[in-house]
Amino acid sequence: MPIESTTEVPEESEAETENPRREQKVAWSNAEITAVMKHFKGHITKGKLATLTECQQCKTAEDPVLDIGKGVSP
What we know:
It is built from 3 helices and no strands. It has about 70 residues and is mostly helical. The longest helix is centred in the middle third of the chain and has 17 residues. The radius of gyration is 21 Å and the shape is elongated.
């Protein structure tokens, strides 16, 4: 008697389903990447987390480029 194999399709998780409140992701511009890397390149190479103060200093210094109201709330 042959053995039948069935494959179950897993149900989509909540994260994979469309959430109407979730906004479309926007890619960073080259100017934004350059501005952030200028402040945090050392952190990234050392694998060190930036402090809240360092993040706020970056936001303040690069305000026109980062356009804080664009996507991430402060």
